[in-house]
Write a structure and sequence with these properties.
about 120 residues, 9 strands, Immunoglobulin-like, BACON domain-containing protein, mainly beta, elongated
């Protein structure tokens, strides 16, 4: 079965339908699960705010499940087609931390902003 979000004028509506587009963690960190209604979305280039390098998901892995991206203080995991889990380690830096997780499906682009409070 194929699904499409295309409209006749070329603009796409929200095909991913995330359960949350922003997640806030306290300094202790923790885990959060985001679900989607769409299944064939791709993990796009994402990054911690004001940091380099970007984690650029290789094209061949962008729809693979399970799939995991591990950073210095976070883990983003796609265990199933409609589930994305976010794990954040405790923040001992004294600075707020932010990650933008970008997703795309066709010509529709979305993101999840992950905020973590400073200690």
């Amino acid at each position: 079965m194929f699904t499409s979000c295309e409209k006749s004028d070329g603009l796409w509506d929200d095909c991913i339908k995330l359960s949350a587009k922003s997640v806030d963690f306290n300094a202790n960190g923790g885990d959060f699960t985001v679900t989607s209604k769409g299944t064939f979305w791709l993990l796009g280039t994402s990054k911690p705010y004001q940091a380099a390098p970007l984690f650029d998901v290789p094209v061949e892995n962008r729809t693979t499940t399970p799939y995991q991206i591990t950073g210095e203080w976070y883990t983003i995991n796609r265990p199933q087609e409609k589930i994305l889990t976010i794990h954040i380690d405790p923040n001992t830096t004294g600075k707020k931390r932010i990650i933008y997780v970008n997703l795309e499906m066709g010509d529709y682009f979305d993101n999840i902003t992950v905020n973590q409070a400073e200690k």
